Amino acid sequence: MGLFAPFKRARRQRILAEHPISDELWDWVLKEHPIFRYLTEGEKAALRELATIFLGEKIFDPVGEVVIDDELRLSIAAQAVLPLVCLDIDWYDDWSTVIVMPREYEVKKKDFDEAGVVHEYDDEFSGEAFDLGPVALSRVDIEASGWGDGYNVVIHEMAHKIDGRDGHFDGVPPLPRDIGISEWQGVFSDAYTDFRRRVEAPEARRPRRGKLRKGGAPRLDSYAAESPEEFFAVVCEYYFERPELLRSEYGEVYGLLARFFRRDPLATAQGPQ
What we know:
Blueprint: H1 5-18, H2 23-32, H3 41-57, E1 59-62, H4 70-81, E2 97-101, E3 105-112, E4 118-125, E5 127-129, E6 135-138, H5 139-143, H6 153-163, H7 181-200, H8 228-241, H9 243-249, H10 251-261, H11 265-268
Parallel strand pairs: 1-2, 2-6
Antiparallel strand pairs: 3-4, 5-6
């Protein structure tokens, strides 16, 4: 952490001492979000501490008619820090604001085709992670997250923030020493290529967000086929929401994520099936 490490530690100790999460509110968030059933008691304690620091360090900025009450703030915080239970809150220290939109919002996008022609179109976003900036989340989608069905806008955008810690949103986050870049890129590239092939197969049909597929098509959200960075963010959603499904679809990806996040949801606790 460098020169300011002692000040940061002292500030966080004050947050923990002066702004604890009440037992009533903590019990609510654990019961309201089935994905936390995958945590051991020790991991739940770590989650509570990380969520407390997140609440103390982040600014929550409502848009429009959104009212950010204690339950919404904690729902966002607890899900946001779930990937960090065995890591460190410093993964999120390069941004400070969570923007909460009422619902999905339109974003004008530009794409270039193979001939170099620019195509502009409107797209709907349920969340967005800005490079070195805030995270935007739709309240409707926050409330649809954490139920164990594979969809989680909070974890999705946090995965982008983790991915971008090295300055690049490319599906390759800063890796620990025990995971080589070639191993990561090989496993994820093979899985991404296979996923795109299966999504584009004639029998594949685009489901509504959060719905599973049938037959030979992949059972993960088809949005993962958009790009390597979106594939990473989507498989992180499933890793914490439906780990058994991700492991059955892409076992090597699941294994790498278990090494990266330093915990295996299916090995540490019995989650919802």
